[in-house]
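User: Predict the complex with iron/sulfur cluster.
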Amino acid sequence: MGCHRQTDPSRTGLTSLERLIGMDTESAPRAIAESCTSNHMWPSPHQSLQMGQWVKLICGASYQDMPTVRRLVMLYALAGVDCVDVAADSAIVAAARQGLEDAQRLASWSAADEALPGERHARLVSSDPWLMVSLNDCEDPHFRKAHFDAAHCPPDCDRPCEDICPTAAIQFQAPQAGSVATNLCYGCGRCIAVCPIGNIAARPYLASPETFSTHQLGQIDAVEIHTQTGHQSQFERLWQRLQPWRPHLKLVSISCPDHDQVVPYLWDLYRLIAPLEVPLIWQTDGRPMSGDLGKGTTHATIRLAQKILDAGLPGHVQAAGGTNGYTVDKLTALNLVNRASSTVGANGVAAGVDPNSRPESRRADAGHRSLPLDHSDVGPTISGIAYGSYGRSQVLPLLDAIDQELQPWLGNGSPDQWINGQTRSRPCPGAIAPGSNPPWCHLDRSALGHGLALAQQLVGQLKPNRHFLPTRYG
Ligand code: SF4
Ligand code: SF4
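Assistant: Here is the predicted structure with iron/sulfur cluster placed in the model:
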């Protein structure tokens, strides 16, 4: 697919790919994507955990805007995350799967693009992140929706609720005529705090694992259970309900906020779920949903990560809740980042990490801790980091423009295809304007390139050896 192609890429591009690898239209994109990714220098998600370079994007346990989730997942998959964490909602899982497929398609098309002499090309690379869904065993701020009755609002209220909402979930058509768009609300609570008359409340809910069919469970790689100290019986009940999930899972994560009894509580949970045949993550949920508020929000998760590391719990420790662009620097300053794994071999894997290790082999890994690979006298280090509100806020303003650029190439698609168990095997036959180039051919000028650069800047803090956008960084 050449950068100056003026015809429908959904046909010409694939014909070209078919000729290139002698495959039919159905298998060509996936095959090229696989060959592209199998030869790249990226560790698998499991290897990233072992190397201490695991990065997760949190789309929001309650965030249910499908188009945004699809684009966020696509962007961060191209930027190299190991995992995307979404709401336990089959439509959202479908949208995330589409985002992952979009990333693979863009990567395969850019890889197959034939450079004109002297032209500088992008070579997008897409990894295959794991798809995680989040569940809760008790009332939790991540699992709630704001609501209010606008009839009770003073007509002269300045509507600070509307201004402060990071997702524009609060919408007014006129004074005293407004509401919360529940699919956009992820429960951050900022509107509740600013309402001068206390008119906004939150409705908590329990995410239900039973909403997924057996087929849909096959599309979910990992599960995260949000719990709190003292809720062992609720956790145990949820763990039992997850029995049908376990054969499908590649990883289990337990997310817990700080508490003076958090360490004995997590040990109790560990004894309850052990032995576990897949990797286990302890997500240290510092200050939930706050990373976009400022520099200082990251301290709580760092303190908690240090506490859990010191406790020596079997499993990996991953920071979240208030993480932002300052977090890795602060963790590094405290020797909590495994910089020994920055030396990566020709196979793309740090010394000391088994390049063939796969959790799919059911190798017992739950007892592994993230230890510095050079076995120096520094203490244990975190295995990874998760970005939620900060990661989203970095690219959200660009998503509409990215959507417009990609519309002719990827279209809007329909999550129903994922829900019904079919993948969309043909590109969208979009109308390509004469003379238009695909956005990956001019990343330095496109919204896609801008968004990728921002996402990569964040993801790359813990993955210093990865180069994603050769036109800009190579
Ligand atoms: S400010 Fe937060 S809690 Fe309030 S509506 Fe917006 S996303 Fe929901
Ligand atoms: S801040 Fe409170 S009173 Fe004012 S418009 Fe919003 S919900 Fe109504």
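DSSP finds 17 helices and twelve strands in the chain.
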